[in-house]
Amino acid sequence: MKKFLVGLLTVALAASMLVGCGKKEEKKKADNSLKDVQSKKELVLGLDSSFPPMGFTDKKDNIVGFDIDLAKEVTKRMGIKLKLQPINWNSKEQELNTEKVDCLWNGVTYSKARAKEMLCSESYMDNHQVLIVPANSKIKSLKDITKDTEVGIQSGSTAADAADSVKELKNSKIKLLADNVQILNDLGHGLDAAVMDEVVAKYYTKKDAGKYKVLEDSVAKEKYVIGFRKDDKALCNEVVKQLKAMAKDGTLKKISEKWFDEDITTIK
């Protein structure tokens, strides 16, 4: 009997040591997230390259945008290179968790669901989900949306969640498409309206003057964050630290004014 009890205690002790080792390994991984990026001297940024003005491909096939300029300055201050990696936005969590990218930084909206899947940084900018329609549309507000109205939304975006919380949109004909560029191309040619980030909608109404209009109704208020793997707290903290330094010395304001003609950043 004594031998049996001793055996049980030995097994229990071994198991506890293994669990303890596992926890130490997890902690080690979390603590080394910044060191890993510094070691390879590169931050791989995952993005939807069709999301102007945050991050998009220009006519010369260069990826540019507000978030891109922020990331370039952050990595410059960290003494590492920035690698831009376009991904399928609908599978962004998988791209992040399989370590194909180090972060998601391209108009990433905070949500409780996303916070369960990834580590969300402090918010650096406010956003709204808005309704955009062709300039000659008879739709003047949400009240004009009916069950026959075809509304375009990017698949995998928080616009879908926002639309689902609004009765008029929830009862309409929702069409999920790959990106906002495709949605805007179809607006007025199959689609009656679209729900998207305000910064994107305003960018296109300014770029293609007289083609679209953004309605005054706000579908949802949101905040932009940067997404990291759950354990990568050190890396997240370093990026936020650099953004705060940029806010303090005026660099953040300068980049914001370049893209939006005003400082609309919120991080201090």
From TrEMBL:
Residues 42-263 form the Solute-binding protein family 3/N-terminal domain. The keyword Glycoprotein does not apply. Keywords: Signal. The keyword Signal applies. It holds the Pfam family SBP_bac_3. CDD domains: PBP2_AatB_like (cd00996). This is Amino acid ABC transporter substrate-binding protein. It comes from Anaerostipes hadrus. The lineage of its organism: Bacteria, Bacillati, Bacillota, Clostridia, Lachnospirales.
